[in-house]
Amino acid sequence: MRGTVIYGPRDIRFEERPDPQIIEPTDAIIRTSATCVCGSDLWPYRGVDPVTEPRPIGHEYCGIVEEVGSAVRNIKPGQFVVGSFFSSDNTCPICQAGYQSRCVRGEFACPTGGQAPYLRVPLADGTLVATPYMPSDDLIPSLLAASDVLGTGWFAADAANVRPGSTAAIVGDGAVGLCAVIAAKQMGAERIIMMSRNVSRAALAREFGATDIVEERGDEGVARIKEMTGGLGAHSLVEAVGTQESMMQAIRSTRAGGHVGFVGVSHDVEIPGLELFYSEVHLLGGPAPVRRFLPELIDLIWNRQIDPGKVFDLRLPLEQVAEGYRAMDERRAIKALLMP
Description:
Layout lengths: L1 E7 L2 E6 L11 E9 L5 H4 L9 E2 L4 E8 L11 E4 L9 H4 L21 E4 L2 H4 E3 L9 H7 L2 H11 L7 E5 L3 H12 L4 E5 L3 H10 L3 E3 L3 H11 L5 E6 L4 H9 L1 E9 L10 H7 L2 E4 L4 H13 L11 E4 L3 H9 L6 E4 L1
Parallel strand pairs: 9-10, 9-12, 10-11, 12-13, 13-14, 15-16
Antiparallel strand pairs: 1-2, 1-4, 3-5, 3-7, 3-16, 5-6, 6-8
């Protein structure tokens, strides 16, 4: 097959790769119906995360099961499945506590690279969730979103303790932040504030349920949130960027006793200990345990109660994956959908 390989900063190639094979009896081989470029893929693409040698890339996927290992019991060939970007047995004590992204047996769920027509998924029974039957084509983008950006945005809102009647604010207007708006709406937030300067992203945030748009950033953004909340700050903050500025903006915009859910992949973030001490805010985040939420998210999508697939504003054939990276890097696209 041909798959996507990153060679270094801004060097994405679609080239011949070995066909994925069953290695462990718990593996499954998936024929992808759709894949995409993730915002976190841009860290190595931009050279922030070093790439020391060529490696396959991509970790968001949905598709049809082609083959399963001898120990797979629940996932069957021919099923349409959605999986997390981390594999999990879904039975260990950490999984049972709801943190499948830290499964004691877990590993990266796409070792052969997810931006490819086929991939191997370890621990298939615990990682993959089958849809009720074969989905219609128009549902596939939203099901793909569930494998990462929707699941991550949902975890962020959950970690931020969004509750009915509360005020939630989102720092980061990428696909994850936009999906956090969907989550906050579903969780009953009365006021949802999206921090964005981008007209099209702000418009999509409003379509998803945002009630307010704040263009200010940094200290000015904090002051604006405080002004909108009677000087207290929001109950719930989602941090979906991963920089020092975004993290501190989130913490400082949260009222005492409030919650910050941080899911932006942290880069050079240092939180002043004394400021955190006196802020009295709750912090919870990290790699999203998408598998915890997948059954609920698939059901919401299946019954057309949410449409997270709208975050894909660029569709390309898989062989044009490099253009998908360029478009997202240059902020010409929120998220690039790739069709094998």
